[in-house]
Amino acid sequence: DVKVTQSSRYLVKRTGEKVFLECVQDMDHENMFWYRQDPGLGLRLIYFSYDVKMKEKGDIPEGYSVSREKKERFSLILESASTNQTSMYLCASKRSNTEAFFGQGTRLTVV
Amino acid sequence: QKEVEQNSGPLSVPEGAIASLNCTYSDRVSQSFFWYRQYSGKSPELIMSIYSNGDKEDGRFTAQLNKASQYVSLLIRDSQPSDSATYLCAALVRGAGSYQLTFGKGTKLSVIP
User: Fold this and answer.
1) Distance from CA of A33 to the nearest CA of B (A)
2) H/E/C letters for each residue in B28-97?
3) How far is A57 from chain B (nearest CA, A)?
4) Lowest-pLDDT range, B25-29, B35-39, B56-60, B87-91?
5) For residue B27, what pLDDT is reported?
6) Per-residue exposure over B84-100, b if at least 16 CB sit within 10 Å of its own CB, e if not
7) CB–CB of A75/A8 below 8 Å?
8) What is the mean pLDDT of residues B35-55?
9) What's the mean per-residue pLDDT of chain B?
10) What percent of chain A has pLDDT above 90?
């Protein structure tokens, strides 16, 4: 079975902190994604990566950056957390042109 | 037009009925489509994928793709209360370097016992 693991299930951070969300997959997938999910807005793509050190902006990249130094790991970085970044964050991975598998999600609260 | 659009619902059907969920897509979308189910507080899980025109059946679920009309649908036969969830339609959209996976906002389904 494909396994996508996010480092934390719940996180509480203070405004202005630098926040790291980690995602690891064990199936050698080329593509990895970071989404945030908010009520009424659905899943919105923040960034995705199609290879090591390669990244593309999604629909809402402002306030975020990403890092992919190894194929299995994709990190989402909030440079200076703000309250409007309180959300559920979901990581996914996939092979080209196939379905994506999701991690369990990280519910981030910024206070 | 957004790449993938769904009616947000909610959609209510009685137990045992057929639930019909629909999704339309724009010209930017490739021909790979996916249906995910998401229970409250959980992450999405794949139900069906469909790549070619026509119907694809898996148990109580049937995915339908109509390229001419640019829509994809999911039918759930003999709906059960355990099918109550949000259903997400997703498609691959070509980016600069690869395909990104884009989702509709989801349709909330309630199956009434």
Assistant:
1) 8
2) CEEEEEEEEEECCCCCCEEEEEECCCEEEEECCEEEEEECCCCEEEEEECCCCHHHCEEEEEEEEEECCC
3) 9
4) B25-29
5) 77
6) bbbbbbbbbbeeeebbb
7) no
8) 94
9) 91
10) 87
Strand pairing report for B99-103 and B85-94? antiparallel
Query: Which residues from B are below 8 Å from A when comparing CB atoms?
Result: 8, 30, 32, 34, 42-46, 49, 88, 90, 92, 95-106
**What is the per-residue pLDDT for B1?**
63
- A103 to B43: CB separation less than 8 angstroms, yes or no: yes
Report the alpha-carbon distance of residue B4 to residue B22 in Å, rounded: 11
Mean per-residue pLDDT for B65-88? 95
Which residues in chain B are closer than 8 Å to A104, comparing Cβ atoms?
42-43
Q: Are B101 and A92 in contact (CB under 8 A)?
A: yes
Cα distance between residue A12 and residue A100, in whole Å: 27
> Collapsing DSSP states into helix, strand and coil, what is residue A30?
coil
Comparing A72 with A59, the larger pLDDT belongs to A72
Q: Is the pLDDT of residue B48 over 90?
A: yes
Cβ contact B104–A54 (<8 Å): no
Question: Å from B111 to nearest chain A CA?
Answer: 21
Mutate to test the interface with B, among A4, A44, A96, A102 (most CBs of B within 10 A): A102
Chain B interface, mutation test: which of A33, A99, A102, most B Cβ atoms within 10 Å?
A99
